[in-house]
Amino acid sequence: MQYPAFYDYMTCMGVNPCWGWLNTNETWRNATQARADELNVEYGKLVAQRRGEFKNFKLLYFNPDLDTIIGQYMAAPVAAGSSLKRERCANHSIHSFIGLTD
Would 12 be classed as within a structural domain? Predict the structure, then answer.
């Protein structure tokens, strides 16, 4: 199944866990990512400003470079005899990681 059909199916069924990103509309996906990027910057600032202010918990900001991590995974050799199939989509590396295709 190609990812656009899967996204549309989840949306139609009312079970799409992340409509902003898992959407066939490029404008919505881009807007969702832009807002997420803005929030990541603000969250990083908040954690830096408030670090050490709370005695019962610690604030942590973790923003992994998923493109690099997935790229390393995709470049790693596949064990002989494995049925694992790795394919990189042109613009959607996370999609290839979870097994969906363009």
Answer: yes
Per the domain annotation, does 27 fall within a domain?
yes
Model pTM?
Answer: 0.60
Rounded to an integer, what distance in angstroms lies between the CA atom of residue 51 and that of residue 29?
32
Average pLDDT of span 67-96: 70
Q: How many domains does the chain have?
A: 1
Query: Given the structure tokens 């549309």, which residue do they identify?
Result: 8
Q: Residues 84, 74: contact at Cβ < 8 Å?
A: no
Residue 71, C-beta contacts closer than 8 angstroms, at least 6 positions apart: 93
> Which ranges in 1-102 belong to alpha helices (H)?
3-13, 26-50, 66-75, 93-97
